[in-house]
Amino acid sequence: MELLAQTLVNGLVLGAGYAVIAVGLTLIFGIVGIANFAHGAFFAMGGYACYLLTSQGLSYLAAVPLSVLIVVIIGALTEWIVIRRSLYGDSHHGSLIVTFALGQAAVAGLILIFGPDPLPVPSPLGQSTMRFFGMFVTSQRAFIFVCSMLVLGALGLWLRLSIKGQQVVAVAQNARGALYSGIDVPWIRALAFVLGVAAAGLAGALLAPITTIYPTMGYSALIVGFTVVILGGMGSIPGAMLGALLIGVANALFETYVSVSWTPALGWALVIATLLFRPQGLLGQLQQHRH
Amino acid sequence: MIDSKQVGVSDRKMSGRTAREASSVACALIVIAVFAYTFSDPFVVTLAGYTCAFALFALSINIILGGVGEVPLGQCLFFGVGAYGAAIGMGKLGLPFQVSVFIALILSVVLAAIIGVITLRLTGAYFSIVSWGLTGVAMVAATNLEEVTGGPLGLFGFPPIEIGPLQLSDPQTYFAVTATILLLAILFLVALRRSPFGAAMDSVRQNRHLARSVGVDVARVRLKAFMLSAPFAALAGALAVPYTQIVTPEVFSVANTVDGLLMVLLGGAQLVVGPVIGAAMFTLIPQAMNLDPNIRILVFSSIIILIMMFAPGGLHQLGVALRDRFGGKTDDDRSR
Amino acid sequence: MTIAAAERPAVSARDIVKRYGGVTALNGVSLDVQEGEIFGIIGPNGAGKSTLFDILCGITVPTTGSIRIMGNEIAGVPPHHIARSGVARTFQRTAVFAESTVLENLLFGRHTSFHHGVLGRIFGSKTFAGDQQAFQTRAEEVLTLIGLDGERHRKAGVLAYGVQRRLAVGIALMSDPKIMFLDEPAAGMNGRETADFIALIRAIAPGRTILIVEHDMAVIRQLCGRALVVVDGKPVVVDAPHHVLSHPEVVTAYLGADDDE
């Protein structure tokens, strides 16, 4: 019983981290209309930015927001130089290949700059543990959970209450309609892209102390992000959160009770089952047929 | 109603094309022979052989990318099936190389049929993501099923690899064999593109809905293309084994697919030999310049981004555009 | 069967309902289109016309209701089979294979009318070559019909919009269909192109049943014997175009409709 409770808590923490990655991914998909295969690279950049700042003597807690800022800058530049120019055209897989190549280039760049080996990111919260209702959680994990919830909550409120947030929602629902009603759609798209990759960068900075950082860390994040997003329904933010919690908890349970070594396959088993029985994902909208 | 002049023209064009092709095949054969027997540096010749094997993999990717217009991020699954098939067949079961490869090819087609039925209902990013995910599953499986796959360390220490009298451990033979197989594959794919099935693939790639409305069974064409692409990748994987001499779960890594995809995009997806040109560039230029593999990825990825932004048809399209502008030639180039 | 053919409608739909999640796109639409008729379907944007078209030609499966084409129930028949049995359609937006030439566009349907072994297709068996020839002949006829004889080797994507729409009709004509569905065929055409287009439809109409979804009332008025008005997924009236357009409910639907898009 205690093991089960502990496992569930671990799963929730894991899920919170996944949710931040996945919400960014689903935001970009919903607003910009592309599957961002470079998302993992921005996740890794968040981790490396954090490493760079802490290695300069900055404290971890100050490094996290600064890392996000660095990722925001890189993301904005990427959007401005590449993304908005590569969406046009009749080649519908253009954006997929471009973002994929961006991710590859970034990973190769990270290897060239920092080397291929894992690097530690020290966190003052790293070693201590906290007790909640008889369960142990390392402070870093608690921090991840709290930060994720705060950020997701803030994003939710912003989308619901602010004017810009409402414009984002409008573009997601009907880009052409939004354009006709005077919304600066390209600007909203750029904003969504930068917000999305910022979320990935935040997740990278948050998870860095517990996973260490390495150039290809983004691949697993990207894959987890995609499983979560497909499970929840592409473009749906509540779906991404639900999917993240489900996969986080399922992974934790599977690791504890079945097999650690087969866990990476679990997410895909869930995704394939989802696609077979509910192709639009758990909370996704069924795409109306269009030509 | 038939315009006889028109038919005559197309006939003449046809025979001119055939002659041109026959001569390019002859040239290719001569180049292969000359290359195999003049170059004595075993490293260069072996690398050339491996490049030919990998070019087969690029061709497999292009059956999907250039054929039906999906990005097959999971194609290394079949590459791995071929590599493991050859390795397990030789190392564990004591079968001859060619028998192991044959079994692996059959297996890859069966696997493609099963996977295709599930994943090809998806299009665009969904298809790419899920097929990528399946390679992750394959990698996990290869790591865990130690009895069969040797686990994370993989399989190695094979008996000398031979096809009948042909010793693949001999660099020149290895190159001659892979190059010849590559040539046959290209000829097959050229014929395929010109066949009605090639036209059907083309229609599906350009516009699924319109294709369906003119009676093309879109789902079937996509599945067939997928099943056709699998054995090419598997053959590539198997032919890579004499070069690598080891098969680890890393064959299922997306890095493999990335290499193949870059080759296709460099050379251009709409040209049958595009991926082969890309493969040559991808291997030879870094080799000649002694580039770090990561710089290679960085440079080629950047080139791909530029190509996609400015010339989505690959370098081939760039060439055609330049030729049209300066050469004044019309667009009757049907060599794709 | 053949004796009843005269009374048998070419396209017949009964109580079509289509729901997407909680949204009802179509609610109880029925229609009968007689053989040889040119039948229009009109209505404000978002009224469900395109959905109705997709359902009538088998691309979308209705939630409830039945469709018969030439007397045969089409439920469960794959769309490409329907396409091969003499039913053709054009699309609103993506109308042609942009990267191929005009002639190639017409020939894409060629492998559908006859079947050959894989080897025969690739290496060109004799009967295969003969069928290719027949198809080529048909392509020549269609080129003349749609007036694109001189453009056969141009890439479809570079043609003017109105010309692309003619080509789209040409693609549909290749199978010599008995029934044609034209989805907003004249959208975005200028006056001259529209007039040419109307002439083209008149020329191909004999011996065919044609259904047209169209916003341009002039096209409907000049071509159609009868038109169905769909508003908010519900059928309002079926009548001759000039009667339909003065029908009070239609007038309110059009004038009262939100100016979406």
TrEMBL record, chain A:
<feature type="transmembrane region" description="Helical">
    <location>
        <begin position="95"/>
        <end position="115"/>
    </location>
</feature>
<keyword id="KW-0029">Amino-acid transport</keyword>
<feature type="transmembrane region" description="Helical">
    <location>
        <begin position="135"/>
        <end position="159"/>
    </location>
</feature>
<dbReference type="Pfam" id="PF02653">
    <property type="entry name" value="BPD_transp_2"/>
</dbReference>
<feature type="transmembrane region" description="Helical">
    <location>
        <begin position="12"/>
        <end position="38"/>
    </location>
</feature>
<feature type="transmembrane region" description="Helical">
    <location>
        <begin position="58"/>
        <end position="83"/>
    </location>
</feature>
<feature type="transmembrane region" description="Helical">
    <location>
        <begin position="222"/>
        <end position="250"/>
    </location>
</feature>
<feature type="transmembrane region" description="Helical">
    <location>
        <begin position="190"/>
        <end position="210"/>
    </location>
</feature>
<keyword id="KW-0472">Membrane</keyword>
<protein>
    <submittedName>
        <fullName>Branched-chain amino acid transport system permease protein</fullName>
    </submittedName>
</protein>
<keyword id="KW-1003">Cell membrane</keyword>
<dbReference type="GO" id="GO:0022857">
    <property type="term" value="F:transmembrane transporter activity"/>
</dbReference>
<dbReference type="GO" id="GO:0006865">
    <property type="term" value="P:amino acid transport"/>
</dbReference>
<feature type="transmembrane region" description="Helical">
    <location>
        <begin position="257"/>
        <end position="277"/>
    </location>
</feature>
<keyword id="KW-0812">Transmembrane</keyword>
TrEMBL record, chain B:
<keyword id="KW-1003">Cell membrane</keyword>
<dbReference type="GO" id="GO:0005886">
    <property type="term" value="C:plasma membrane"/>
</dbReference>
<feature type="transmembrane region" description="Helical">
    <location>
        <begin position="97"/>
        <end position="118"/>
    </location>
</feature>
<feature type="transmembrane region" description="Helical">
    <location>
        <begin position="297"/>
        <end position="315"/>
    </location>
</feature>
<keyword id="KW-1133">Transmembrane helix</keyword>
<dbReference type="Pfam" id="PF02653">
    <property type="entry name" value="BPD_transp_2"/>
</dbReference>
<keyword id="KW-0472">Membrane</keyword>
<feature type="transmembrane region" description="Helical">
    <location>
        <begin position="125"/>
        <end position="145"/>
    </location>
</feature>
<dbReference type="InterPro" id="IPR043428">
    <property type="entry name" value="LivM-like"/>
</dbReference>
<feature type="transmembrane region" description="Helical">
    <location>
        <begin position="45"/>
        <end position="65"/>
    </location>
</feature>
<feature type="transmembrane region" description="Helical">
    <location>
        <begin position="263"/>
        <end position="285"/>
    </location>
</feature>
<feature type="transmembrane region" description="Helical">
    <location>
        <begin position="21"/>
        <end position="39"/>
    </location>
</feature>
<feature type="transmembrane region" description="Helical">
    <location>
        <begin position="174"/>
        <end position="192"/>
    </location>
</feature>
<keyword id="KW-0812">Transmembrane</keyword>
<feature type="transmembrane region" description="Helical">
    <location>
        <begin position="72"/>
        <end position="91"/>
    </location>
</feature>
TrEMBL record, chain C:
<dbReference type="InterPro" id="IPR027417">
    <property type="entry name" value="P-loop_NTPase"/>
</dbReference>
<comment type="function">
    <text>Involved in beta-(1--&gt;2)glucan export. Transmembrane domains (TMD) form a pore in the inner membrane and the ATP-binding domain (NBD) is responsible for energy generation.</text>
</comment>
<dbReference type="InterPro" id="IPR003439">
    <property type="entry name" value="ABC_transporter-like_ATP-bd"/>
</dbReference>
<keyword id="KW-0067">ATP-binding</keyword>
<keyword id="KW-0813">Transport</keyword>
<dbReference type="GO" id="GO:0016887">
    <property type="term" value="F:ATP hydrolysis activity"/>
</dbReference>
<keyword id="KW-0547">Nucleotide-binding</keyword>
<feature type="domain" description="ABC transporter">
    <location>
        <begin position="11"/>
        <end position="257"/>
    </location>
</feature>
<dbReference type="GO" id="GO:0005524">
    <property type="term" value="F:ATP binding"/>
</dbReference>
<dbReference type="Pfam" id="PF00005">
    <property type="entry name" value="ABC_tran"/>
</dbReference>
<dbReference type="GO" id="GO:0005886">
    <property type="term" value="C:plasma membrane"/>
</dbReference>
<dbReference type="InterPro" id="IPR003593">
    <property type="entry name" value="AAA+_ATPase"/>
</dbReference>
<dbReference type="InterPro" id="IPR051120">
    <property type="entry name" value="ABC_AA/LPS_Transport"/>
</dbReference>
<protein>
    <submittedName>
        <fullName>Branched-chain amino acid transport system ATP-binding protein</fullName>
    </submittedName>
</protein>
